[in-house]
Each structure stands twice: as structure tokens, then as C-alpha cells.
Amino acid sequence: MPKRGDAATENKKTITFHSARHTFATTITLSNGVPIETVSKLLGHTKLSTTQIYARVIDSKISSDMECLKKKLK
Q1: What pTM, to 2 d.p., does this model score?
Q2: SS (H, E, C) 3-35
Q3: CA angle, 29 as apex, 58 and 17 as ends, to 5°?
Q4: What are the tens digits of pLDDT across the range 14-33?
Q5: Distance of CA 34 to the CA centre of its chain
């Protein structure tokens, strides 16, 4: 069993419900291309604007979206 001051004890972090929910919404779903409308329904939001609070614009997502648009416009 780790003793106080051991690395195993010092690295423990508490994950709150809000942190887990935010991570799910941003890192797991939105950054993997799940539409924000779908994420909104998964989170039980009635307004899309509520889900937009969770959404961070990720540079790689912007780049990917612009590539898709470029292909469609050709």
C-alpha cells in the first residue's frame, strides 16, 4: 500500500461529474466528428446553445472541416 508522499498517492486526481461530462462532449465526441446536434441530444440539452458552451473549437477540426468544404466546392 502506498505511503503518504509516494508518487502513486500524489498523482491521484478527483474527476468531477462536470469534468467528465465536458471531456466526453469535447474530447470524445466533438473532436471525433460527432455533430454538435447529436452531442446535444446525448447530453439531454433542449437548446443547442447550451451544448455550445461545452464546445471548444479545435484547430484540427477547423482544418478538417475546411478540407471537406474544399472537396465539395471542386
Answers
A1: 0.60
A2: CCCCHHHHCCCCCCHHHHHHHHHHHHHHHHCCC
A3: 100
A4: 889 988 988 888 888 988 88
A5: 10
